[in-house]
Amino acid sequence: MSLLIRGGRIIDSTSTDDEGRTADVLVDGDRIVQVLDAGSEVRADDVLDATGCVVSPGFVDLHVHLREPGREESETIETGSRAAARGGFTAVVAMPNTEPPHDSRVVVDFVRDQGRRAGLCEVVPSGCITVGRAGQTLAPFAELREAGVRFFTDDGNGVQDAQLMRRALEYAGQLGLTLAQHCEVASLTHGAVMHEGACCSRLGLPGWPSLAEELMVHRDIELCRLTGSPVHFLHLSTERSVDMVRVAKAEGLPVTAEAAPHHFTLTDEALSGFDPTFKVNPPLRTPADIAALKRGLADGTIDAIATDHAPHAPHLKELPLDQAPPGMLGLETALALALTELAMPLRDVVAALSWKPAAIAHLADRHGRPIAAGEPANLTVFDPSATWTIDRGQLASRSRNTPYHGRTVRGRVRHTVFGGRAVVVDGAATK
Fold first, then answer.
1. What CATH architecture applies to the domain 58-360?
2. Which residues carry out catalysis?
3. Residues 119-137 as b or e (16 or more Cβ within 10 Å = b)
């Protein structure tokens, strides 16, 4: 069936400013077949009104926890992909810390197949760097690459052994893979609940030092220099981490980085009420760290906005603060938080949500593409001026652990087109 997206303002990687071009986009099958002047008389089987909206390439999330297999009480691939589609994402990279983890072809194939059954966005399995994410033995990179995996991480754990990480980078470089590091020196964070600073001292809670992240960022920049293999830094949270990545990029090293919306919108003071909703790994930091993340996103030091969407069933998040698991929902609120909180040109926000993460995840052949005839029809239509109030009860995730309940934000996804099909229409998933 054909689909016409009528009257939207196109912003893609070829745009030079925020003005874009107002046009009608005709889709047939899974491809864009024409981009016409707005008000064209072309007809289609279905029409999506994009008046007052931006039409962009679909968003790509480098960092999503879908929990399946093993912890379906918190999320399933179907519910997570529905949340993703409502957030404008046409592809998400599923983190490997499931039960069992993504260290075998069987699990990777299962996750990808479940994503295809859901049909709301592309679910891209990441692979473990080490078997069981245990940090002892390298996972079977070649086998997982044959299964289509190009992005590897032990997210939730940092690879503690420097020699093992060096070997992993050398091996990944030979196979054309990207390794993504969860930067945490575990010996410095044992028992920690929140950022180590004035707030944790006042509350009497065990602190998580910024140095735990920064030591590993420094180490892996040097391993990247040694091996020449690309390294992606997950969920940067401190000012010094951003500064080190900025210097590494200026030296021409193949490093990339992401930041999560909660790290550029919330400070450690949010935990003053001892609410586990605000517990996350790495922890919420200081206003100075938030300012540094915003500068890093604005100047391109931080390449991508990635949600670290981490659903937890209510009975888990209702545990005492020191026992509750870390993590927050993020898929349906990422765009709005970025538009509300970041003083960046609209094109740059879209770049950080779309074509830049698509390139890092090795998905640039089908996501984040220019909006032009012959290109894949993976598209997001959003109203950058729409204001709305976040309501945890209205989210698509199986869990409800959003820290933004009741917060009024600006910018909302109206339609999402995946594989040429409208999977979200006027904010509602069609499946």
1. Alpha-Beta Barrel (3.20)
2. 308
3. bbbbbbbbbbbbeebebee
Three-state DSSP state, 129: coil
pLDDT, mean of residues 143-169? 98
CA dihedral (237, 239, 242, 244) positive or negative:
negative
* H helices present in 140-254, as ranges: 141-146, 162-175, 198-203, 211-227, 239-250
* The two three-digit tokens of residue 327, written as one number: 């993590």
Give domain limits for the chain.
2-55+373-429, 58-360
* Tens digits of residue pLDDT in 227-266: 999 999 999 999 999 999 999 999 999 999 999 999 999 9
- What is the pLDDT of the chain when averaged over all its residues? 97
Q: Read off the tokens for 195.
A: 């950022």
Tokens encoding 2: 């054909």
Give the three-class secondary structure for 88.
coil
What does pTM read for this prediction? 0.97
Token pair of 339 as six digits: 């538009």
Give the SS3 label for residue 98.
Answer: coil
**CATH tag, 2-55+373-429:** 2.30.40.10
Peptide bond into 282 cis (omega under 30): yes
Written as six digits, the tokens of 408 are 């009024």
Please report which confidence band the pLDDT of residue 309 belongs to, taking 50, 70 and 90 as the band edges.
Answer: very high
- In this prediction, residues 266-279 reach a mean pLDDT of 97
